[in-house]
Prior knowledge:
By secondary structure, the protein is of the alpha/beta class. It has helices spanning 10-21, 63-66, 76-86, 104-114, 129-133, 138-155, 182-202, 211-215, 233-251; strands at residues 36-38, 54-61, 90-98, 122-126, 163-166, 206-208. It has a 6-stranded mixed β-sheet with strand order 1-3-2-4-5-6, with helices on both faces. β5 (163-166), α7 (182-202) and β6 (206-208) form a beta-alpha-beta unit. The radius of gyration is 17 Å and the shape is globular. Mean pLDDT is 85; it is low at 1-33 and 37-52.
Amino acid sequence: MCSKIVFMPLVLQSFLFWMMMACAKPQTHYPSNNTNTTANNNNTDIAMNDTGKNFSWLALGDSYTIGQSVSEDERYPAQTVALLKADMIHVQTLQYIATTGWTTLNLLDAIAAQNPHGPFNIVTLLIGVNDQYQHFDTGSYRKNFTTCLEKAIVLAGNKKDHVFVLSIPDYSVTPFAAGSDTAEIRKELDEFNAINKAITLSYDISYTDITPLTQQAKYDAGLIAGDGLHPSGKEYAKWAALLAPEIEKVLK
């Protein structure tokens, strides 16, 4: 696996990342950040609706999907829904299976535990930063990400064109990483993103590379949330602007 990242000072950095990323062992209960935002709680009424009027979305991931340190309407799925609505594409159900600190294994455990009722018109997947931070080897990440992607395909009713994968953001440019070996962080994230991109494209699934956008935070502090680590609503808006047209191609 990649060499360990040296954090200076070690004790303070470890404590801060524990508090903000909540990197923990796989849990068996996931109630706090898994939300279902909907005007109709009966998913079967709208799942895979061919009328084009109302659609359902399942967002899978970690802190970047649940929008750690931003409001619910600033999360990238919520902002994408707003853009789609402006183009007369209405997502009536937006469901999250995502929690800060989750690895690919945590996400797989949560999917199994919650057993979401699909199929969903849209399934997004963004996962891997905690695998990198917790020093998972690339072989394990490759295996687990592939399983996550296959789960996403099933949840989309085996319609691969309804699945959308996003790359892992580059947190090396954030204030949190200051004093760390940022070059090594970036190198490891590049390796993990090369893996998730290759797997995604091998399944002929849409891949949205948001990593370059997140690197702009090095020069624009407004792209980082108040915790000094996660993206701000302004940053998530950039992701939504990239993702919305890709979703529109499928749902229109």
